[in-house]
């Protein structure tokens, strides 16, 4: 693994060798503070990942590769494009990488907004290295699941409003005849919509279709609950750990 560290995006990259035990994954570190940026990069590289520091959101957008296993450690408050603005831009470009926000001035309301927009975590400066490594590890493990979920949502997004309505009713355990009675349609029409949904999603039977539909719907609920329970207020320093200033 290596650190690619430079004071400015136009300067040559300095590659620093780290321990031979490598972990798969790239960690982009976006912070306008050069000293902190390289300190965090050192922590990341020593843990075995490839660290790619960026001094601005614009540099990240030039360098980021959303197809490989990666996550972003992102400063909330930067001149020019802020962390939240960069998060929005990544979403608009369809780049779905886990983001760990770090800040010295963040408020709970900002944290909640960032997390609801899909951020993985929110940490307060100075950052405890052990905690940072722990959260990066969790974020990288989550990345394949995010890609899978995005694929599932894309498939479910192909369904019409009526097909989605019927899937929702099937997911509650209703039979086709019961759904037909509830919607004022014939059972044959319900089966027609179900068959179209199967073809669009590439599933072969109702059970597979329901698993796909519930996964897309249920992961949203799980994400909201997880954000609320576990991630919103992770802004206090971990006791007994050395911090990266």
Give an overview of the whole structure.
The protein is of the alpha/beta class. The protein has a domain at 2-143: 3-Layer(aba) Sandwich (Rossmann fold). It has 9 helices and 7 strands. The protein has helices at 34-46, 57-63, 83-92, 108-116, 129-156, 161-171, 176-183, 187-201, 206-231; strands at 2-5, 14-17, 26-30, 50-54, 70-75, 99-103, 121-124. It has a 5-stranded parallel β-sheet, sandwiched between helices. The longest helix has 28 residues, at 129-156. The chain is elongated. It starts with a strand and ends in a 14-residue tail after the last helix. 33% of the residues are buried. Mean pLDDT is 80; it is low at 6-20 and 219-239.
Key words describing this protein structure:
245 residues; alpha/beta; Rossmann fold; five-stranded parallel sheet; two-stranded antiparallel ribbon; 7 strands; 52% helix; 13% strand; elongated
Outline:
The chain has helices at residues 34-46, 57-63, 83-92, 108-116, 129-156, 161-171, 176-183, 187-201, 206-231, and strands spanning 2-5, 14-17, 26-30, 50-54, 70-75, 99-103, 121-124. With 245 residues, the chain is α/β, with parallel strands linked by helices. A hairpin with an 8-residue loop joins strand 1 (2-5) and strand 2 (14-17).
